[in-house]
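fyi for ur records
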Amino acid sequence: MQLLSYWQEMVPLSEVTFYKMGGLTKYFTKPKNINQIYETLKFCRENKICTAILGLGSNCVFADGLFDGLVLSLENLANFYWESESYLYAEAGVTNTQIAEACLQACRDGAWWMFRMPGQVGASVRMNARCFGGEMEQVVCSVLAIDASGKLSSYDASEIFLGYKSTLFMNNPHLIIGVRFYFPNQNTYENILQKMHECESERLKKHHFDYPSCGSTFKNNYNLGKPSGQIFDELKFKGTTIGEAQVSNWHGNFIWNLGRAKTEDMLTLASSMREKVMHELGSQVDLEVQPVGVFSNKLFDKCGMEKLGPFFSYHGKEKQQEKWVGLFYHPNQDFNQKEYPCENLSATFSSYQGDKQKNFQHIKFKITQLLSMNDAQKFVNEPFLKWETQTLLHPKNIFHTVPHLPDGSFVNKLWEYSVSEIFMARADDHEKYIEVELNHLGHHIFLCFSGIRTQSSLEFSPIPKFFFHENSLPDKSYKYSFGLYFSYSDLEYVLKNSSHLAIQGALSLGNEDYSLAPHWGVDSSRHDNKPDFHQPGRYFLIKLH
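which gave:
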């Protein structure tokens, strides 16, 4: 098996996690963009490689033995920028402290509580992290995430957050790619800084950073009427030690790694704390920290790991005596598509330049598959793929410049007006691609390329069907939708019986206002830094079923 070029082998997890615990991982990777993430997940599915996700490792503990699979680190997804005065976009690997500091510099209130909170925003959103009266649900607008099948989707906050430290992603594994935050309120630099210092002082007072830890080991059980830390204080757990894992002398819900702690020591200590709460108080406390890897059935049961998401039997030397826990992907997962229509891709648009947009709008790009590949090849003129642009405002308020020429000559120069665009390239030959430009009035052009910006001499006249919808979207955040239905025959040039298609959504709204969905950033090798949508090697790959 030839590994991907950006993978490493036999990496000590104790060297890449905040908690400084865990054994070796067979494979390790730090992808730089969503295409490398997709390529990695595809490779893992094809080669049946178990996969786990690593942020900073500040809220997870890896098993002591060999992780016989891949650990995917989000360290390199570390870009963030203001999309407008109030909206901040951050990739999943950006730290919570960086968000707080960015808001401080912009004098935007609402993120001060994230200062010195260990972890990256992807993991913090996944668990709806909270502290000092703040909570991710309060500041997140939308999330871009990919599931283990490789489907990239945009989710609104109303779909994600389910309550106290509970989200859609905790029992339905997704890898968060990026987060759009909303900070509508202003405050003075001095007031925000004071709040940040108060948070830091509180953490230092409780000695949060004396030794590596995951912060709170257990969630609060509000039926007990007290925070878990106070409960463990009253049960005299402070200072309790197993191996080099110790309950903090300053906070009863923290378990420190004194230097060379084993994960089994830490979880054995946690299980004894959990058992005593049940024995003394007749109620349960559930782990907040996420164990990852293979654990004995005994430790699995004592720690209540069944509540922490999907788990799988581990077929090692002692069959059925151990379980995989905390995985993002396991080969036993079923990704066979059985129902249509099905969403293939959805993403919000972001500035091409990765900076404040001239006219920030809530606009989403979406691809839906209406027929199976088999049926589409049988009924080649029936609607097969649906491309839509969704907007919160009426499109006439966004797509300001439209053609008004009675002879229809606008068709050859539609790019001079406000348009939504889609690029579709062959999966095995990215220089064979098509470009479709469309506005909300149904004006569109269809261009075919045999090379980068080299139009093909192939003669064919696709006739995709236009639609415009209002007030009929299941996604309540987007009131209007317009786009095209493509048949298999419309797209045969780029499909060629392949089960994959490379896709890019783009917007050209005028006044040099350009956006991408999904966003992949400006090519640093280009010196002129001008937007160029004709980069099919960077398009996102989707799977057709």
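The chain has eleven helices and 33 strands. thats all i got for now
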